[in-house]
Every structure is written in structure tokens, then in C-alpha cells.
Design brief:
Length: 193
Amino acid sequence: MKYKFISATLAIIALAIGVAALKPLDISYASSIAAPAATPKTNQSVKTKTVRELTYTDGEFDGKEIVTTDEEWKKILTPAEFYIMRQEGTEAPYSGELTDNHKHGTYYCAACGLAVFSSNAKFESGTGWPSFFQPIFKKNVIEKVDRSLSEERTKVECARCHAHLGHVFDDGPRPTGLRYCMNSVALRFKAGK
Ligand SMILES: [Zn+2]
């Protein structure tokens, strides 16, 4: 009986020491995850905006295509990027960050980094999507007939990786009369001349 009492007491003491030892650990853990500058590690459920590194390629497309399977793209792209660039989705109007971007610079394919549009050809279309009257080089985009809707449209792809970027319509301003209606998600902007 006495032995039982002692062992029970010891167990309580051991537990108390354990809790005391754990407590400072809990606090330091909590403060480290609460730090605002903490970079997200492998926790994919954390909705932190991460900018995937992309190597930008300026100039006219050299003809060397990038062939990557959808499975590979799925690993590389964000779900929104994958939906738009590999499944020909369209972002909601006025949802994109680049629609009202008025800075001077170059717009690159968000999948492979090839230059596709220049701020010199950007105009206010009032549609809610970034709009251009011409690509940076004709060779840098591919235009294909799109019959996914009842009205026939022309879809625009990156010439290098075939990422879907948007559509082109013939109601644009001068000098081309074209309106390249792009998805902001499919573009990366880099400020410059
Ligand atoms: Zn591309």
C-alpha cells in the first residue's frame, strides 16, 4: 500500500517534470510558426503566396520547344496556372493582377518564361483581362482555331511550351486592329524598358 502510494507520487512528479520540460518547447514552437517572416516549408495546406522561380527568355523564339507532360506540369504549376495554361481555362475578369498594370516592361509566359508581350502594346480594353494589340514577336506565340464555344475563337499559346495564354479577337485598336485577351495568371511581368 505504501509502495503504491510512493510510486503514484513519483509518477505525478515525473509527469509534472515532463509538462514543465515540454512547456518552454511549446512556446518556442508557437512563436517560431507565428513569426510573420517565416518562409513556408513543406506544409502545402498553408495558403501562402509563393512565386515560383522562372528564368526569363527575351528576344525572338529560337524554335526550341519545351515538351513536358501534364503530369510534370502539375508538379511545377499552381492549380490556377495548370487550369488556365494546360486545360485552357479562363480566369474571372478583373481577377488578375496584371490587368491594370501600367508599368513599362515585358510579359513572359508564366510556365516557361518566354517573352510574349511588351507593355508597349498593352491597352485598356475594359474587359477585365490584360489586353495587347500584338505579341512581342509573332514567332513567340501560336494562334489556333478554338471551337470549344458556339462562336469560333482563336486561342493563343506560348510557342515554346504550348501553354494556353488566352484568345485573340479582331476588335482591337490600331495599328493591328487585334485584341490579344490574355489571362493574368498565364503571364509574368518584369519591369524594364
Ligand atoms: Zn511558355
